[in-house]
Amino acid sequence: MSKPHQNNAFMFNAKADTVIKKKYCRFKKSGIKYIDYKDGDFLMKFLNEQGKMLPRRITGTSLKFQRKISQAVKRARHLSILPYVADGLK
Amino acid sequence: MNKHNYESVIVFTPVLSEEQLKDAIKKYRQLITEHGGEIVHELNKGMTKLAYPIQKKSSGFYVIFEFSAPTDLIKTIEIQFKRDERIMRFLTIALDKHAMVYNQRKRNGEFNKAKPATQAPATENKKTKVEEDII
Question: CB-based contacts of A9: which residues, under 8 Å, 6+ apart?
Answer without folding.
Answer: none
